[in-house]
Amino acid sequence: FTEERAKLTSVLRSRNDAVILVNEHGKVTLINPAAERIFNTRAEHALGQTLVEVVRRHQFIDLWKSSLSSATQQIVTLETTPERLFIQAIATPLVDSLPGSTLLVFQDLTRIRHLENVRMDFVANVSHELHAPLASIKAVIETLQEVGFDDPPTAQRLLQKLDVEIDTLTQLVQELLELSRIESGSVPFNLQLVKPFYLLRRAVERMTAQVERAGLKMTVQCPENLPPVRADAERIEQVLGRQGVLAGVRGRPFHRRIGPQQLQRLGVSGGIPQVAVEQLQQPRIARVPRGTHVE
């Protein structure tokens, strides 16, 4: 019995999942470091205490009692407050190895649940982005079918509209392909020293055609003598061009000014906070509401 318990203790302490061993009286006889972190306790305080005193949630107590009485494995998933952790608890009675004891395993699913929410938001945003240009293309085609080319000015205007919407779809597909390559790790970053003015000018040049077709005017005011920054020029141009300027091309005309202060907000000089980095790493395609004024 002592040898079996020693082996069990060694295995459980090496697990990443939180583990608590409870005897038939509801007393905690073993707790691993992961469980100490989740329940904000220490082993020297938890050992010998009741399960209620350690986990402090009645759902886990009910899980243990149900597993103990039925001698079967029981599972429950819940969100804790105020920590907002998604925990899946599994209670397994150790009928053969440690009669009367129950092994409780707590798996932190917070990160997985967060990624699921991000994925659902991403799919919803992509669907929304696809719906608008496709509906516009269908409307243009139906109008051309009715009017035909008897009215050349109208037909030309509709064809220009069709060209803009096709460019929008092409841009979206390119962004999705780029995102897939980045997530697969097949896109290396080419970090080199480059001047901010060069980055802004290249972004403007890449978007000139789409901006002109949308009837907008784009200007950049940035001192040429700003110190260089270490960055992947092509990726930064995509961020400035696609996510910034293209948002205005898809919506109504607006004034957008990019200068030293804006570059500093982007973290070019002082670095990007870790929270913002995690948000930037999430796949996201967002639409700027029509009428939005960006300064």
TL;DR?
The protein has 295 residues and is an alpha+beta fold. The protein has helices at residues 2-13, 33-38, 43-46, 51-55, 58-70, 110-147, 152-184, 196-213, 233-250, 260-265, 274-280; strands at residues 18-22, 28-31, 74-79, 86-93, 102-108, 192-194, 229-231. The chain has a five-stranded antiparallel sheet. A two-stranded antiparallel sheet has the order 6-7.
Summarize the structure in words:
This protein has helices spanning 2-13, 33-38, 43-46, 51-55, 58-70, 110-147, 152-184, 196-213, 233-250, 260-265, 274-280, and strands at 18-22, 28-31, 74-79, 86-93, 102-108, 192-194, 229-231. With 295 residues, the chain is of the alpha+beta class. β3 (74-79) and β4 form a beta hairpin.
Compressed to H and E, one letter per element, the order equals HEEHHHHEEEHHEHEHHH
The value of Rg in angstroms is 29 Å
Q: Roughly what percent helix?
A: 40-55%
- Tell the overall outline: elongated
| Biggest beta sheet summary | 5 strands, antiparallel
Q: Roughly how many Å apart are the termini?
A: 72 Å
* Spans where pLDDT lies below 50 across 5 or more residues: 250-272, 280-295
Number of β-strand runs = 7
Total number of helical segments?
11
Q: Enumerate the strands of the largest sheet in spatial order, edge to edge or round the barrel.
A: 2-1-5-4-3
Q: Structural class from helices and strands?
A: alpha+beta
Global mean pLDDT: 76
